[in-house]
Write a structure and sequence with these properties.
By secondary structure, the protein is of the alpha/beta class. Helix 2 crosses helix 10. The mean pLDDT is 96. The structure holds 4-methyl-5-hydroxyethylthiazole phosphate (TZP) and magnesium ion. The site of 4-methyl-5-hydroxyethylthiazole phosphate has 14 residues, from helix 9.
Length: 205
């Protein structure tokens, strides 16, 4: 699979985002057609240690069963033990060029929120850019200021060949505007984890 295809409906979550069982939520989303999943066990109430690993392994197994690419947020050791297809990092994490040396065969995603970050990004070492927050979000406690779909256009213009996924405040109602701005896909936490009917939310996306 090409990374661009994987980005199309990219579901992200950890146990801290779920009211019910994360495994059931992932299964429902997988059944409904998500194209990638990122295990992001982070923030208030996130699991640690063995529990963190165990849930990751269970979610990884579900992704295998549904043939959905599995990404791990930040955690290199976890990405390695879980044999993740990819790893996603932010600006404050391990530099992408170093990650590339450690993981020559994994997809590497990097978050960028503004022009300075874009200018300083090792574009040659990564497979896709996570661009946002596009809209305001309460899911990430330390989210940067919302940048709007214009930011997607600017990144696309600067790097037409690099796959882009939008993130932050994306919902059934505004996802199309992110795609129209030039994104290859949308990444979503709460519009799926908080949906009354996950299957409907995923198919409407
Ligand atoms: N990075 C930028 S915004 C965000 C992350 C992880 C949270 C996205 O969550 P939601 O619920 O889809 O707005
Ligand atoms: Mg990070």
């Amino acid at each position: 699979m090409e990374v661009r295809q994987a980005l199309r409906k990219y579901f992200i979550m950890g146990s801290q985002n779920c009211n019910g069982d994360p495994k059931e939520i992932l299964k429902q989303a997988a059944n409904a057609g998500i194209t990638a999943f990122q295990y992001r066990e982070k923030g208030n109430g996130a699991l640690q240690g063995f529990q963190r690993y165990l849930l990751g392994k269970q979610l990884r197994d579900i992704c295998k069963q549904y043939q959905i690419p599995f990404f791990v947020n930040d955690d290199e050791e976890l990405a390695e033990i879980l044999d993740a297809d990819g790893i996603h990092v932010g600006q404050d994490d391990k530099p992408a060029a170093e990650l590339r040396r450690r993981f020559p065969n994994k997809w590497i995603g990097l978050s960028i929120s503004n022009q300075a970050e874009l200018n300083n990004s090792p574009i040659d070492s990564i497979d896709y850019l996570g661009v946002g927050p596009i809209f305001s979000t309460t899911t990430k406690e330390d989210a940067k200021v919302a940048v709007g779909t214009q930011w997607v256009k600017e990144v696309k213009h600067a790097y037409p060949h690099i796959p882009i996924v939008g993130i932050g405040g994306i919902s059934v109602d505004n996802a199309a505007s992110v795609m129209e701005a030039g994104a290859d896909g949308v990444s979503i936490i709460s519009a799926i984890t908080n949906a009354k009917y996950i299957d409907q939310a995923v198919s409407q996306l």
